[in-house]
Structure formats: structure tokens, C-alpha cells
Amino acid sequence: MAPKDYVARGRNKKPAPAPPKVSLPWLRIIITLCLLGLFAYFLWSIKGKAPDTKTQVNSNAPAQIAEDGEALPEIPDEEWEFIKTLPEYTVEIEQQQQDQPIVQRLMQCGSFRKEHQAQELKAQIAFQGLEAQVRSSKGTSGLWYRVILGPYDSKRLAEKDRHTLQRAKIIGCKIWNWNLN
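The chain above was modelled as a monomer; its predicted structure follows.
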């Protein structure tokens, strides 16, 4: 019974009147007009404070006048000595001939008893964009076929090619220095 009474009481009540609506667009228009008026007043107040462009110094003028009325001296043209002296300047360097041994760097990537194994390694190296040679050499233990790259002018170039081969899983290449003197 209690729920019915509650429902019954809710039906008999009239809704409360809504609060009066304030016209919001008029308030926004008034605030906007006030801000525009203040901005216009600000612009008008700083109008006389701008620097005069007629009194600014002209850098192209032949003679400038100082604040006390006296003419300032002209700025002289800059002269640079090195422009004249540099083309005539020569440097002589003494070269000392030293008896340095000529070093040739070779990289050996394999040594095989059978030539076809050396040719297979040479082909794998060729797939990496490098040119190898197969050289035969006769040693105390018989005939060997060596796979050689080079000659290289610097060790850095040889190392670069060795790293390229290592990335291709061709491991075991050694760099040898040969004195040609």
C-alpha cells in the first residue's frame, strides 16, 4: 500500500515553474562591443607615440648629422690586405725522401688441395661483388690452391672487404703484409 500512496502523491503535484531565462545572446553582444571599444581607445591612445619615420637615420646619406648639429665624418671604405697578398702568396714544402718499404696487403680467404674447392670459394666471393684470384703454390707438403684478394693500398680497405665477406658467412680471411723492397 505504501508504494501506491507514493505514486499517487507524485501525480497530484504540479511541476515547479521554470526560472526566468536571461537573454544570453544580448549579453554576449554587449561584452563584445565593450571589448571592441576598449581596443579602439587603446589604438587611438598610442597613435601619437609611434616613432617618426622622417627622423630615422638614412644609411645611404653621404653625411649624417649628430644630435648636437655637427656633421659626422664619413665612414672610410674597408680595405683588406689579404685580398691583394693571398694570390701572390706561395708556400714551399720540403719533401724528405725516406726509404720506406713498400707494403702490399693481400687477403687470403682459403687454401685448398683441390682446385675446384678454390674455384667454389672464388665464386662465393664474386657474389659479394669482390674479385678474387686462385693462385697455385708448391710447398713442402704438395700443391696448394690459395684464394687471394688484393692487393690493397691500405689496411682499412682490406678490413672493409673482410667485413663484407664476414657478413656473407665467409669467415677465416687473413690480411697479410708483403714488403716489396
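DSSP finds five helices and four strands in the chain.
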